[in-house]
Amino acid sequence: MTDTTEVRGLAGRFRRRLPAHEVHEVLSSTRRSAALSYLQREGEVSVQALSEAVATAETSVRPAPRDVRLSVYNSLVGTHLPKLAALGLVDYDIEHKRVRVLPAARQVTSHTGVLTGLGITWAGYYRTLGVIGLFLVVASLAGVPVLSAVDPLVPATVALVAFAVSGVYQLWAERRRARRSFRGR
């Protein structure tokens, strides 16, 4: 990105950790959160592609209605991208209408995957579920008392069903949360 056209504050350029209140402020906007999540996956994109992705996330319609895409584009350009750039989370090239996520954004996006009831990320939850399932299968095969009486297929099946049920619940909960947050903008 050219340094003559990028918007990035000096405070954001040199800061190592964002204070908690700034992390919460960034995440308080569903559009900023959606934009950062998309940028984490894609790296560098045009502002138009970003606005289309955020609008699609808001409406669950592909392509999103034109008026929603325009509203998202204007709010990203006018408010959200300059704010994210000033915090040092993105490079925003105004002239070329491109935006690129910076490594500092990970400290914000790491807060977006929290499982509400347990306070752990979905990745941590699935990792724990996998380790427990593997332990039960191996213990059954190794002849650990009580578990050796159970066919190894039983704990394997229970673990797979737990993964499937958890995946369905996660999808349902995320869609419900997204719909509520987009309605209450």
Derived structural class: alpha+beta
Under the CATH scheme, which class of the largest domain? Mainly Alpha
Strand content: 5-15%
Helix-strand topology string: EHHHEHHEEHHH
Question: What would you say about this model in short?
Answer:
This protein is α+β, with helices and mostly antiparallel strands and 185 residues long.
How would you describe this protein?
This protein has 185 residues and is of the alpha+beta class. The protein folds into 2 domains: 6-109, Arc Repressor Mutant, subunit A (Orthogonal Bundle); 122-183. It has 8 helices and 4 strands; from the N terminus they run βαααβααββααα. It has helices spanning 10-14, 20-27, 30-42, 47-59, 66-86, 106-109, 122-142, 153-183; strands at 6-7, 44-46, 90-93, 98-101. Strands 1-3-4-2 form a 4-stranded antiparallel beta sheet. Strand 3 and strand 4 form a beta hairpin. Helix 4 (47-59) packs across helix 5. The two termini are 32 Å apart. Mean pLDDT is 81; it is low at 1-15.
